[in-house]
Specification:
The protein is of the alpha+beta class. It has a single domain, classed as Alpha-Beta Plaits (2-Layer Sandwich). 22% of the residues lie in helices and 21% in strands. The protein is built from two helices and four strands, in the order βαββαβ. A hairpin with a 2-residue loop joins strand 2 and strand 3. The longest helix is centred in the C-terminal third of the chain and has 10 residues.
């Protein structure tokens, strides 16, 4: 039983401060380019859901959102 069929995320580049927490927690999904976090894959593969949620919670600027 799946609780989500798909998960998409976005990074608000105006809010992102480029700490790299998301990339450290979930490197298959996030990377920091030119001081801003970028999403490498959307929608997110199911096996990455947990680390994406952890990355969202760890973002000090609250720049990452799940849609």
């Amino acid at each position: 039983m799946s609780n989500s069929n798909s998960m998409k995320i976005m990074v608000d580049e105006l809010v992102c401060i480029g700490t790299g927490n998301c990339e450290e927690i979930c490197p298959n999904v996030f990377e920091v380019v030119d001081g801003k976090a970028c999403v490498k894959v959307n929608p997110i593969p199911a096996e990455e859901f947990d680390c994406v949620r952890e990355a969202v919670n760890a973002c000090p600027a609250r720049a990452i959102s799940i849609t």
